[in-house]
């Protein structure tokens, strides 16, 4: 298939060797998978930018079938739309696709933090965490109003477990290290026992 992709209008977009190395390392996808996604991306989005509707289409094909409401997809898109222009480029798209399946605990918890931090300020407040937990509970069908599954209460419990006041914000390091050191938080955020 090669690195060169011909798109509508006769122009070509190159996937450079440096970009390929970066994307392989960052995404843990094979060179062929990256090239196939690159070709599909540029053929579908010749302007080089994918809107949210396009992202939802691809995300649902590749990722979590349990996300029937699209809530998690909304969070993923918000995380990778770094400049908040409601579009993402190929690199952002590929990293969004790949980030959903990180291999190690640190990468997984880093991804969860990024999913929660929709403001993109590098900090997580109780409201952002509660919104993420609410979306996650909706996806897995746990939307009843039992007190132990109340997203605001769960968020407060997470902050308390990490020794952080609810009116403060968590840094990524506090979140990742705290979750690694708490079996309850690892289970809550899908990092295993």
TrEMBL record:
Give the Gene3D superfamilies listed for this entry: EF-hand
Residue stretches making up the EF-hand domain: 68-103, 104-139
The signal sequence is none
Write the record's keywords in alphabetical order, separated by commas.
Calcium, Lipoprotein, Metal-binding, Myristate, Repeat
The answer to whether UniProt assigns keyword Metal-binding to this entry is yes
Spell out the molecular function terms from Gene Ontology: calcium ion binding
Q: Which domain of life is it from?
A: Eukaryota
The family classification in the record reads: Belongs to the recoverin family.
Q: What is this protein called?
A: EF-hand domain-containing protein
């Amino acid at each position: 298939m090669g690195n060169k992709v011909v798109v509508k209008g006769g122009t070509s977009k190159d996937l450079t060797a440096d970009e390929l190395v970066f994307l392989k390392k960052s995404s843990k996808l094979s060179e062929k998978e990256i090239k196939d996604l690159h070709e599909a991306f540029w053929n579908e989005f010749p302007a080089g930018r994918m809107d949210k509707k396009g992202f939802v289409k691809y995300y649902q094909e590749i990722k979590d079938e349990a996300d029937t409401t699209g809530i998690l997809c909304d969070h993923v898109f918000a995380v990778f739309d770094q400049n908040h222009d409601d579009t993402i480029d190929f690199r952002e798209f590929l990293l969004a696709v790949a980030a959903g399946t990180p291999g190690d605990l640190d990468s997984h918890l880093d991804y969860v933090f990024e999913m929660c931090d929709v403001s993109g300020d590098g900090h997580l407040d109780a409201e952002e965490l509660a919104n993420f937990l609410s979306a996650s509970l909706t996806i897995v069908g746990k939307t009843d109003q039992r007190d132990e599954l109340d997203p605001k209460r769960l968020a407060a419990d997470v902050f308390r477990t990490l020794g952080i006041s609810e009116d403060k914000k968590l840094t990524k390091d506090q979140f990742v290290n705290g979750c690694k050191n708490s079996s309850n938080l690892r289970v809550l955020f899908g990092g295993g026992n």
